[in-house]
Structures are given as C-alpha cells and as structure tokens.
Amino acid sequence: MTHRLVALSVASLALLAPLIAPAQGLRPSTGSVVAASVEPPAASGLAADYIVAVVNSEPITNNEVRAATQRLQQQLAQHGRPAVDSRALAREVLERLINEKAQMQQARESGINADEAAIDQAEQNIAQQNQLTVPELRRRLAQQGTTPAQFRSQLRDQIVLARLREREVDARVRVSDLEVDQYLREQQSSNDPATQQINLAQILVSVPDTATPVQLAALQARAQRALVRAQAGEDFAALVREFSDASDNASLTQGGELGLRTLDRYPPLFLQATQNLALGELSALVRSGAGFHILKVVEKKSAALAAMTVTQSRARHILLRVSPQLSEGAARDKLNEFKKNIAAGKANFADLAREQSQDGSAAQGGDLGWASPGMFVPEFETVMNALEPGQISEPLVSRFGVHLIQLMERRQASLSPQEQRESVRAMLREKKLDETYGRWAQDVRGRAYVELREPPQ
Predict the structure, then answer these.
(1) CA–CA separation, 241 vs 254, rounded Å?
(2) 187 pLDDT exceeds 90?
(3) Cβ(206)–Cβ(272) under 8 Å?
(4) What is the DSSP letter of 394?
(5) How far apart are CA 172 and CA 149, in angstroms?
C-alpha cells in the first residue's frame, strides 16, 4: 500500500477551520482566479441570495461563497493572520468551489459514492484527531452554526472527491527503480553529501499568454510595487493575499509558502534567484512563463540521506474485502464482533487473522511487520498512528476493504539501504502525484462549462 495525502475540500475546511491545523488546508486550485461577481460577508443580517456561477447547469450561490469565506476569515484570525480583503478571498473561494463542483460531477458520472458507514468513520477520525468525542465535535460545530447534517454532507463530498482522485490520479503514477537509482546517484555525486532543502514563499503576478505589451508593462509595475513594499518591511503574507495570483501553489492561510522541499523540486529559475540569499531575504523580480515572481527564503535545511531515522510501527490487521456476498456494513459488523470477542478473551487476534483475513498477511496472523511512515494508505495510517501499543481500532474502510487494526509496538529506527530506497521512492511518487493532480484538475476544470453571473441590480 502506498502513501497518498488527500486534502479537505473547500467546504469541509471551512467547517473545520477552528478545529484543524493550517497544514490540513485547501488543496491548491488549478485555474487562475476569475473576476467573480461575489459580495463579501455582510456585517450583520443575511443578504438576498442569488446565483454567482453555473457549472454544467449546477449553480453556486452567493450565500455558499459567503459561508466558506467567513469560515476562512475565522481561520485566519485564529492563527494570528492579518485580515484579508473579503472580495479577494471570495474570488479565491469561488474559483475553488467551481473546481470542486466540476470534480463532484465527474464523480457522480463515474458512479462513485460514499455510504453512511464511511461517513461515520470519517467523523470519528476527525473527532479523535481533535481529542473529542463525536458528540463533543458536533456541539463545537453547532456553536459555529454548522448542523450535523451539514457537516456530514461535507464529509460525504470529501470522501467522494478522495475516491475520485485515488482512481483518476493515483493509478497513473509509478516510480521505477531506474528513477530511484538516478536520484541516489545525483545525491552521491553532489559536492555536499547532505540533501539541501529549502522553503520559499512567493508572490506571483500572472501574465496571460495573450498579454499585450501595455498589459505586460502594467503587470510588471504591479509586481514591482509589491516588491518595494516587501523590501520596506511590510508583512509578506499580507502582500501575498493582496497581490499574488498563485492559488495553485499555496493557500492564503500559509503566506504563499511553497513548503520545505529538496532543491530538485523547485524550478532552476527559483534556485538561481535565491541561492545567495540568507533567511528572510527577498529576490529581485523573477520572470518565468507564468509571470513575475517575488521569492522570500523562509527556511533552509540539510538532512543527510545516510542518517535517516523514522518512527516505525508494527501492526497487524484483519482485512475483509467488500463483495456482492459481503457488503461494507456487514464487514464492519463482523469485525466489531471480532473486536468484542477479543476484548472478552473469547478469541485471539492472530488466530482470527489467520482464519478470516483476506490478504497475504493472514498466514502471519495479520502481522504487517515494521512499517515506516508513508508505507500505508493515509486512511489506514491515520488510524494506526492514533493507537497505543496493544490497542485495537474501530473497523475502518480503505480502498482495499474493511480493516481491524491492532498496534503491537513502535520504535525509532535508522533506515537500511533498502528502506532508504523506499523512502526515496515515496518522495518521488509524492512529487509526481502533485504534478499529475495539477494536470488532471486543470483538465477537469477546462472541460466544464462555467458561466459567471453578475449580481442582480
């Protein structure tokens, strides 16, 4: 099983904003922000609702955009970010809702759905991650004006989108042994044996391919104004929200940061512009095919490949595969019965795994061996990571079926050469997944008919 990070949808993030960390934020959108006709959140009262966009005949209303915008404003405030211009944020939210709507439509056409048991599991996972019970989570959301039905509807959409992306994106990505070998050779041939990592933040002023010389000059002047203000010491994150068109690279809540990554995951143009900069310093304007960039060095880090250490987990599981003869609900009920019998001392986990589990680990009593982070799919790994040694999970659903997990032990371990290869493979695959997802999402958006509407007069 391979690792895949799936971000929360726009609406789900908006609902959960006060409960989750910024790292669980929006998946980068793939289109440029359009000139949307949306109004910022009203100071008081409810404005009349109206349609602001239609995606393949399905509407997006002004109140939908308002609600998501307000939640994101709350998240920014919670994390100490300066206030964001409501109109700019509303345009960002609308564009992402359009992308999400187009993907949901494709999912429905493909017959992808999420049953109540999967939604129950997702709700339980979110409650556990925030150290809450499900009733406590619902009370917290109710205080923010979100009903359980609304929350579960957003979770349903999130699960459907995740399953669509797994099918349409994950299946396309493979990393060969030759690619792993090439990466390792490049690291070994470097003058510095350490792997250099860097985190850059950027402001991007986009330049359309069809820009006229007059438009190009105006956009360059706009980028220059942002650079001057950044050099004068203004808050970079605030300037990102005011000037940047880079909605496909970083969410507004992350100050334009592109994330700590190895140098080979940045464009050579960015590295050339920042190679001699110290932490906190700014580049000059950088011109690329996308537009004008202003880059800020946020973090630099070196990590020797040969000294990689990780927290490993050793777990065992019982897997029941869903089939016409065994529904997801029936598999969950069966595993719940197994768990009760184990807790009562009537059965042994390893014996049940040998008898019942429907995967290759059955012969070993379900033992999956020592696993490093990223070796399992995220829905499995998230639940496993929340367990204490000896603890048994609730039944959980993954793309492989329904699992019952018992964590056996954990340890800190240095990676063997083979494990390092697998770690490199996972890193290269994640890079490919990001690139493939971006192309796929852009293609889905491009095939959708989108009509933007003006507000009623």
Answers:
(1) 10
(2) no
(3) no
(4) P
(5) 35
The reported pLDDT for the residue numbered 14 is 38
CA 232 to CA 238: how far, in whole Å?
Answer: 13
All structural domains of the chain, each given as residue ranges with its CATH number in brackets, are: 10-168+448-452 (1.10.4030.10), 194-306 (3.10.50.40), 309-414 (3.10.50.40)
Dihedral of CA 340/343/345/347: which sign? positive
pTM over 0.70: no
Which has the closest alpha carbon to 320: 336, 297, 307? 336
What is the chain's alpha carbon radius of gyration, rounded to the nearest angstrom?
24
Residue 80: predicted pLDDT: 64
E strand map for 218-308: 261-262, 286-287, 291-304
What is the rounded end-to-end Cα distance, in angstroms, of the chain?
55
Written as six digits, the tokens of 378 are: 């995220």
The Cα-based distances of 156 to 61, 112, 249, 406 in angstroms read 20, 11, 26, 27
Q: Find all residues with CB under 8 Å of 154, minimum gap 6, and list them.
A: 9, 11, 12, 15
Is 411:157 a contact under the CB 8 Å cutoff? no
- Gap between the Cα atoms of 332 and 21, Å rounded: 30
Q: Cβ–Cβ contacts within 10 Å for residue 273, how many? A: 20
111, amino acid identity: G
Contacting residues for 156 by C-beta, under 8 A, at least 6 apart: 114, 119
Maximum mean pLDDT: which of 16-20, 21-25, 242-246: 242-246
Question: Which range has the worst mean pLDDT, 70-84, 258-272, 425-439?
Answer: 70-84
For the record, the structure tokens of 197 come out as: 């990592």
The answer to whether the beta carbons of residues 164 and 399 sit under 8 Å apart is: no
The 3 state secondary structure assigned to 197-235 is EEEEEEEEEECCCCCCHHHHHHHHHHHHHHHHHHHCCCC
Distances (CA, A) of 260 to 53, 119, 204, 280, 305: 36, 33, 18, 14, 16
Is there a contact between 116 and 48 (Cβ–Cβ < 8 Å)? Answer: no
Query: Does residue 314 or residue 173 have the better pLDDT?
Result: 314
Which residues are CB-neighbours of 171 under 8 A, at least 6 positions away? none
Query: CA–CA separation, 215 vs 211, rounded Å?
Result: 6
Structure tokens at 133: 């019970």
> What's the full length of the chain, in residues?
457
pLDDT one-digit tens code per residue, 72-124: 887 777 666 666 777 888 888 898 899 999 999 999 999 998 888 888 888 88
Please give the Cα distance from 319 to 152 (Å, whole number): 26
Positive or negative, the Cα torsion across 329, 335, 341, 343?
A: negative
Q: Note the pLDDT of residue 67.
A: 84
Of 248 and 208, more confident:
208
